[in-house]
Amino acid sequence: MPETPTIPDSPATAPLLRLSGLEQVFDTKRGKVPAVSGVDLKVEAGKVLCLVGESGCGKTTTARAAAGLTRPTGGSVEYLGHDIHRMGAAEWQEYREAVQYIHQDPYASLNPVRTVLSSLTAGLRKHKKVKGRHEARQAAARLLEQVELTPAESYLDKYPHQLSGGQRQRVAVARALAMNPKLLIADESTSMLDVSIRVSLLNTLGGLRDDLGVGFMFITHDLAVAKYFAWDGEIAVMYLGKVVEHGPTPQVINDPQHPYTKALIAAVCEPDPRLARSKKTIPLRSAEIPSLTALPSGCTFHPRCPLAESGDCDTTPPTLAPLDERRRLACHVVARDHVAAQAGTG
């Protein structure tokens, strides 16, 4: 049966950001490294999409491609229905202002020889959004107030080394807000902060989402952080460059379907000793993560998967297919059992 042709979204109905078949292959001395393979995701205006997974699974590579910082080797990145790498100069400028990136390390992302005022107003001055020093200073003060660094005047003339880690990261967030973005891509932006500061910053980011309608692509390896920040959004679980489960956060957290997602959730520390003793563990077949330069055949998770079966799992890569109305899954065994269960109740 011939496939139905895909009708492209119009700018009015298109999501804020769409990744279609995104691929990123790096050439190294050890051979080609497929860091990202066929990722299909979208972020709607004012919504949160969390990318979660172990270190090295492709989260940051996906985020950098989404921000236009790298050009993917395959697939496309679309902003409001337009491929960003086919945009004209004016469209590209609009996209670069609308999509801002918050880096992981607040100690490295700020220029050490620039004051907070200089860092916050560099973009505003470059794009002629302020006139004169007084207007620039007022704009910088408003940005600091948005991220709850008050009184703003006490921070404007400080250098990064005079700030704590949490204060630096808030300055980085304020800098990202300077262009009035529609989407913030936060790459592990709370992972280097103390727990109490982390929660405070997450609350600030949540306030920006609710008050300004800013969309988020939030990258984290911590499912507890994903649950806290994106409860009303979606989670996409990545493993070795591919999305293996994607759906609304409550469903993914409370009722995970993919064996890898179950293993991630089982690995989250439980502070209550009674709950910890009753918590189910997921016995993986191996703790070793395969190398991206020598990926296993079939499903790349099958050497570690407790549900792996010979035949399909070790020969045929699973596709990320709809499991129900809002969830997608890439697992031969779970998909087969789900279809059988649906047929039994039908």
From TrEMBL:
The keyword Nucleotide-binding applies. The keyword Ribosomal protein does not apply. It holds the Pfam family oligo_HPY. CDD domains: ABC_NikE_OppD_transporters (cd03257). One of its GO terms (molecular function) is ATP hydrolysis activity. One of its GO terms (biological process) is peptide transport. InterPro entries: AAA+_ATPase, ABC_transp_ATP-bind, ABC_transporter-like_ATP-bd, ABC_transporter-like_CS, Oligopep_ABC_C, P-loop_NTPase. Residues 17-265 form the ABC transporter domain. SMART domains: AAA. Keywords: ATP-binding, Nucleotide-binding, Transport. Belongs to the ABC transporter superfamily. This is Peptide/nickel transport system ATP-binding protein.
